[in-house]
Structure to design on (883 residues):
C-alpha cells in the first residue's frame, strides 16, 4: 500500500546507474577524464622536451615530428580539449534550452520568429561557423573556442528542447500555474524545466561527443590556443606525414578521442532509453 | 446447469456457450503473483454477462483470457476455458488463432485503434471475410453490406469507401461490432466498448449489441466499470474485486439484493437519475496484485469485517439459486436498502445571492465560434451543473470563467464587477477567489513536485501563509480531503488517481476560494472514488459556502450534487432551471432524449 512505497521517485541518475549501457559509458568516460587530468603529473618527459630523433621508436609510443615523446604529449594533450568541450557543451545547452523553451512557451508568432531564425543558423555547418571567426582572430584564446563551440551547438539543442517542451507546456499543470498567475519565468523554471531533465541529459551527452570532435577538428586544422602545447587534435595533424612509419604518433590520439566519444555516447544512449521508457515512472 | 460448484464433470456438458473453470493468471516477473484466480463463469448461448469491477480488479485480464491471451508479463497458469468441449487454453497457437474471431470475437475499448486508418471500411470488412475464408469473392461485398445493415449503419458505396477517421466514434464502434459478428462467433468479449462515447451513441451501440446477441444466440461477456450500463444490458452480473469474483447472480438479484459488502458499497457510491443520493466512497484503495491482503481480500476495507474474515479466503457460496457470494458473513449482515442513501433534492425555492453571472457569452477558437450567447448565473453556496455531450461547449465555458481561455466576448461578472478575459489580466484577488480543478489529475499535477510543494504554492503566491505556518495549513487541507500527513513528501506520480484529484482539490482550497470551477473532475476516477470526492465537495459547499460550477456529462451525478442545471447542445443552452424541474419534467426534446438515453439503475 501507499505507506510502503518510497516517497519520491528515484532520480534520473539513480535509475541510469541501474542500466548497464550507462554504467559502462560512465566508466569509460571517467577513465579518459582521469587520464587527462592526472597523467601530466606522471609523464616521463616534459611537454616540449625533446626525447630523441623525430619519428623514432624510442619510448613506449615513439617520438613525434619534433622528437618529443608521444606518450607524454598524449598525457598532456587531453586536459585542454576536455575542458573546452565540457564548457562549450554547457554553454550550448544553456543557450539552446533557453531559446527552445522560451519559443515553445511563448507559442504563436514568437515561436515562429525564434525558430525560423534558429533554422537560418542551423543552415551553417558547425565547423564552418567556427572557422569563419577563428580565421579572423590572430591567436584564439580558450574562451573564444568555448564560445564558438557553445554558439554552434545552441540552435541544434534549441530544436530538441523546443520539441520536448511543446509536450509539456500544454499540460494542465502548466495551465494551472498560469491560472494562479505565476510569473512566466517561474513557470518555465519550476514547472516546465524539471520535467525535461531526462531527454535534455541525453542531448547533453550527445552534444559533448560532438564538442570533442569539433575541438579536436579545430586542433587538427591548426586552431588551438597555444601552438606549442600538446593537443590531441593537433597531434593528428602534426604527425600525419609519418602515419606509415611511426603510426602511434597519430593513432594514439585518435584512439583516445574515439574511446572517449564511445563512452559519452553510451551514456547519452542510456539516458535516452530511460526517457523513452516513460520519463515519469 | 449450475454455476456454483467446482464440479469438473458438470461443466463440460453445456451445449454452446462457454464455460470457464478455475481460471488463474499470474505475473511472471517476480515469483508467481496472482492477477486473477479461482474464476468460474458460465456464458449461456444468447446471454449477456456483465463483468464489473474497478480498475485493478482484473476484469480485462479475465476478458482476454477467454481468447487464450495474456498480456506481456502475465501467464494463464491454471483453469480451463471450454467452448463446445474444447479447451481454448490447451489448443495449439494455430488452432487458437482460428478460434479467435471465428468462435470467440473481441471488441476492444478503443475501436479506432483497431481499424486500419489507411484502408477503406468496405475493403477492411471484405479482407476480414477473405481471411476467414467466408463466402466467395462475389458474396463477400454483399456480406459486408449485410453486416453493416445489421448494426444500423448505411451500406451504400459512399459509406464503404470511407476511412475510419471519416466516421464518428459511435459509427467506428458499430463497424467494430459488425466485424466481430460477421464470422458468426459463438462468444463475444466486449471490453468497455462504450467508454468515451456520448450517452446517445452509447445507448445506440448497446441496443445494437443486445439485439444481435439475442437474435444470433451469441453469448457475450461485457467487461465494464459502469454499473449503470450493466443494469441496462446484462442478464447476469459478475462483480470482481482484487482478482476474484465476489458476487455472481441474475441482474435483478444483484441490484435488488446485493449480498457482498463490496457490491453494496459500489451501489452506495453511484448516483441515480431519479433521486438525489448522499454518495459514499469506499475507504482505502484497491490492492495491487502482490499486495492483496490474506483471507477475504476486501476485509481491510469492509465495514462488516470481523476477525475470522482475515483467516481464510472465502469460497463462492450460493445464497439463492443462481446467486453466489464470496463472503463468510453473508447471512449475518442483514438486508441492503437502496433508499438508505436517498436524500431530498436540492430545494429549488431557496433564496439565491448571485456571485457569478454570465451574460451573452460567445466563445471562439480562432475563427470558429463554439459557444453562442450563453447566459446563466451562480449563487453563493450553490452548485450549478453544465451538462452536455462532447462538443457542446461545456468545458469551454468553464475555461472562460476560470480565465484559461481568452478568446471570448460578453460579460462574466464576479461579485458585480466584470472579469478580465485571461487569468493574467485579472487582479490577484480575483485569481485567488476563483479556482479551477482539472478533469485529468494525471496531467494537472506537476510530477516533479511533492504534494507539500504543490499545495503550498497558492498560499505563498497569494500571501496567505508561508514557511512553517503554510506547512501546517497543508496538513490541515490534506486532512480535509482525507489524505494523511505522510503524503507531504510524496511526489505526485506516486499517488493513485483518486489521491491525485484530492491533492488537486486541496491545492484549489489552499487559495481559500469562493468559487470552484470543476471540469469533469470525477470522470477519470473509479465510481467508489467518485462517491467520496462528491461527498467531499458537498461537505465543502455546506461548511464553507463555496459555490461550484460543475461540468459533467453524467446526468445522474448532476441529480446528486447540483441545485441548478444548464443543458447545453452545440454551444447553446437548450434548457435550464432547478435540477428537480429539469430532470423530472423536461420541457425540451433534447433534454428528454438525454434522460432517456442515460443508463439508469432504478
Amino acid at each position: 500500500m501507499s505507506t510502503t512505497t518510497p516517497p519520491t521517485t528515484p532520480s534520473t541518475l539513480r535509475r541510469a546507474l541501474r542500466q548497464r549501457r550507462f554504467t559502462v559509458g560512465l566508466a569509460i568516460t571517467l577513465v579518459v577524464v582521469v587520464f587527462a587530468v592526472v597523467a601530466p603529473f606522471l609523464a616521463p618527459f616534459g611537454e616540449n622536451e625533446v626525447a630523441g630523433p623525430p619519428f623514432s621508436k624510442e619510448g613506449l609510443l615513439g617520438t613525434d615530428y619534433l622528437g618529443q615523446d608521444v606518450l607524454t604529449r598524449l598525457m598532456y594533450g587531453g586536459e585542454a580539449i576536455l575542458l573546452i568541450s565540457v564548457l562549450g557543451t554547457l554553454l550550448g545547452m544553456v543557450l539552446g534550452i533557453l531559446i527552445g523553451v522560451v519559443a515553445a512557451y511563448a507559442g504563436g508568432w514568437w515561436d515562429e520568429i525564434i525558430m525560423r531564425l534558429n533554422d537560418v543558423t542551423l543552415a551553417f555547418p558547425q565547423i564552418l561557423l567556427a572557422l569563419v571567426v577563428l580565421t579572423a582572430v590572430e591567436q584564439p584564446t580558450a574562451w573564444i573556442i568555448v564560445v564558438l563551440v557553445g554558439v554552434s551547438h545552441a540552435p541544434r539543442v534549441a530544436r530538441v528542447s523546443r520539441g520536448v517542451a511543446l509536450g509539456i507546456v500544454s499540460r494542465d499543470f502548466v495551465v494551472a500555474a498560469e491560472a494562479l498567475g505565476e510569473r512566466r519565468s517561474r513557470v518555465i523554471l519550476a514547472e516546465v524545466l524539471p520535467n525535461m531533465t531526462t531527454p535534455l541529459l541525453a542531448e547533453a551527452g550527445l552534444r559533448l561527443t560532438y564538442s570533442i570532435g569539433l575541438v579536436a577538428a579545430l586542433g587538427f586544422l591548426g586552431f588551438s590556443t597555444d601552438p606549442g602545447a600538446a593537443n590531441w587534435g593537433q597531434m593528428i595533424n602534426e604527425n600525419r606525414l609519418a602515419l606509415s612509419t611511426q603510426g602511434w604518433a597519430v593513432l594514439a590520439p585518435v584512439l583516445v578521442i574515439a574511446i572517449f566519444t564511445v563512452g559519452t555516447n553510451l551514456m547519452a544512449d542510456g539516458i535516452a532509453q530511460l526517457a523513452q521508457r516513460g520519463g515519469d515512472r | 446447469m449450475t454455476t456454483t460448484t467446482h464440479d469438473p464433470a458438470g461443466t463440460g456438458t453445456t451445449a454452446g456457450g462457454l464455460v470457464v473453470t478455475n481460471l488463474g493468471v499470474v505475473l511472471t516477473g517476480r515469483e508467481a503473483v496472482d492477477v486473477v484466480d479461482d474464476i468460474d463463469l458460465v456464458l449461456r448461448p444468447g446471454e449477456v454477462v456483465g463483468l464489473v469491477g474497478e480498475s485493478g480488479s482484473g476484469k480485462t485480464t479475465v476478458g482476454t483470457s477467454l481468447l487464450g491471451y495474456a498480456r506481456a508479463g502475465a501467464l494463464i497458469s491454471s483453469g480451463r476455458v471450454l467452448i463446445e468441449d474444447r479447451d481454448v487454453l490447451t489448443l495449439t497457437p494455430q488452432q487458437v488463432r482460428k478460434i479467435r474471431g471465428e468462435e470467440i470475437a473481441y471488441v476492444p475499448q478503443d475501436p479506432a485503434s483497431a481499424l486500419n486508418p489507411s484502408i477503406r471500411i468496405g475493403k477492411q470488412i471484405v479482407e476480414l471475410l477473405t481471411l476467414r475464408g467466408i463466402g466467395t469473392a462475389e458474396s463477400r461485398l454483399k456480406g459486408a453490406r449485410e453486416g453493416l445493415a445489421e448494426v444500423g449503419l448505411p451500406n451504400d458505396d459512399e459509406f464503404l469507401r470511407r476511412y475510419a477517421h471519416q466516421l464518428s466514434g459511435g459509427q467506428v464502434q458499430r463497424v467494430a461490432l459488425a466485424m466481430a459478428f460477421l464470422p458468426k462467433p459463438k462468444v463475444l468479449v466486449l471490453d468497455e466498448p462504450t467508454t468515451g462515447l456520448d450517452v446517445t451513441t452509447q445507448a445506440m451501440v448497446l441496443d445494437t449489441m443486445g439485439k444481435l446477441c439475442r437474435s444470433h444466440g451469441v453469448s457475450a461477456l461485457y467487461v465494464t466499470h459502469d454499473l449503470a450500463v450493466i443494469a441496462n444490458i446484462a442478464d447476469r452480473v459478475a462483480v470482481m474485486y482484487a482478482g476474484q469474483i465476489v458476487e455472481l447472480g441474475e441482474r435483478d438479484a444483484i441490484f435488488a439484493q446485493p449480498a457482498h459488502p463490496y457490491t453494496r458499497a459500489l451501489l452506495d457510491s453511484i448516483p441515480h437519475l431519479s433521486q438525489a443520493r448522499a454518495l459514499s466512497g469506499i475507504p482505502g484503495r484497491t490492492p495491487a496484485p502482490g499486495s492483496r491482503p490474506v483471507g477475504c481480500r476486501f476485509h481491510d476495507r469492509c465495514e462488516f469485517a470481523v476477525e475470522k474474515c482475515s483467516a481464510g479466503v472465502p469460497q463462492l457460496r450460493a445464497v439463492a439459486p443462481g446467486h453466489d457470494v464470496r463472503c463468510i458473513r453473508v447471512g449475518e449482515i442483514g438486508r441492503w436498502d437502496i433508499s438508505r442513501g436517498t436524500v431530498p433534492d436540492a430545494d429549488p425555492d431557496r433564496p439565491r445571492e448571485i456571485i457569478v453571472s454570465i451574460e451573452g457569452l460567445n466563445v471562439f477558437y480562432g475563427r470558429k465560434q463554439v459557444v453562442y450567447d450563453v447566459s446563466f448565473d451562480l449563487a453563493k453556496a450553490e452548485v450549478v451543473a453544465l451538462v452536455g455531450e462532447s462538443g457542446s461547449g461545456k468545458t469551454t465555458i468553464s475555461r472562460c470563467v476560470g480565465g484559461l481561455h481568452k478568446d471570448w466576448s460578453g460579460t462574466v461578472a464576479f461579485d458585480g464587477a466584470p472579469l478580465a478575459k485571461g487569468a493574467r489580466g485579472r487582479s490577484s484577488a480575483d485569481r485567488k477567489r476563483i479556482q479551477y480543478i482539472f478533469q485529468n489529475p494525471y496531467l494537472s499535477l506537476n510530477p516533479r513536485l511533492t504534494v507539500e510543494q504543490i499545495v503550498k504554492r497558492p498560499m505563498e503566491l497569494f500571501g496567505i501563509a508561508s514557511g512553517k505556518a503554510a506547512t501546517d495549513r497543508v496538513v490541515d487541507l490534506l486532512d480535509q480531503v482525507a489524505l494523511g500527513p505522510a503524503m507531504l513528501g510524496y511526489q505526485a506520480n506516486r499517488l493513485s488517481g483518486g489521491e491525485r484529484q484530492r491533492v488537486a482539490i486541496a491545492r484549489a482550497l489552499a487559495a481559500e476560494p469562493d468559487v470552484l470551477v470543476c471540469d469533469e473532475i470525477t470522470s477519470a476516477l473509479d465510481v467508489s472514488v467518485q462517491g467520496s470526492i462528491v461527498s467531499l465537495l458537498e461537505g465543502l459547499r455546506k461548511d464553507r459556502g463555496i459555490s461550484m460550477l460543475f461540468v459533467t456529462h453524467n446526468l445522474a451525478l448532476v441529480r446528486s450534487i447540483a441545485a441548478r442545471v444548464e443543458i447545453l447542445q452545440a454551444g447553446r443552452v437548450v434548457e435550464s432551471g432547478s435540477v428537480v424541474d429539469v430532470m423530472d419534467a423536461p420541457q425540451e426534446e433534447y433534454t428528454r432524449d438525454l434522460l432517456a438515453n442515460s443508463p439508469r439503475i432504478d
About this structure: Residues 199-216 of chain B form the longest helix (18 residues).
